[in-house]
Design goal:
single chain; YheA-like fold; 77% helix
Length: 116
Amino acid sequence: MDYSSTYKLAQDIRDSEEYRTYHELKDSVMKDETTAALITEYRKLQMTLQMAAAAGATPDTEDMQRFSGISTLLFAKPEVSNFLLSEMRLQQALADIFKIVTEAADIDISIPGLEK
C-alpha cells in the first residue's frame, strides 16, 4: 500500500482551520496551571461518565456533580469555552475522517449494543 495519500491527509489536517484554531487556543489556555488542571479533571470525568453510559450503568452522582461544577467554571471563561468548543470541532472532523476510512476498508467498528 502506498501511504503518500495518508501523509497528504495528515498535512491537510494540520492545515485545517479546526486544527489551527485548536492549537492556537490550546497554547494560550494551557499556560494557566489552574485552568490546565481543571481541563485535565474535566476530561477525566467526561470519559468516566461516557464509559458508564456506554456500559449502561448509572453514572456516579458525585462524578456528575463534579463534572457539572467544573464545566460551569470552564465554560464561564470565553477563551476556555472557545478552546473546548474548538477541541470538539476538531474531534468531530477526525471522527468523520475515521468513519470514511473505515467504510472504505469495509470494517465494522460499531460497539455491540450501541448501534444507532
